[in-house]
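During data preparation, a discrete fold description was generated, as reproduced here:
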Amino acid sequence: MSTRTEIMNIETKGVVGSGSMGRGIAKNCFRSGMKAVLNDTSGNALRATRKHTDAALQRSVDRNQATFQEAETWLYALDTFEDSATIFRV
């Protein structure tokens, strides 16, 4: 295995900001098998992101785009933190 391949083996991604772009990046991360750590300075924004993500995953299940088990696994792969220092400890 080359050094480049070893470097690209990423299991967790940190995303700063939980707006539309941050949510989208986090969604792509956990749907591709990575853990996503989402950071925002606003607890309200993080709660809104969690609610939005729950609803989006439920729609995926309802439309047969994902199984319930997949959606549940993806949901557990998303962590949210208000403390910006936490993202560096992951």
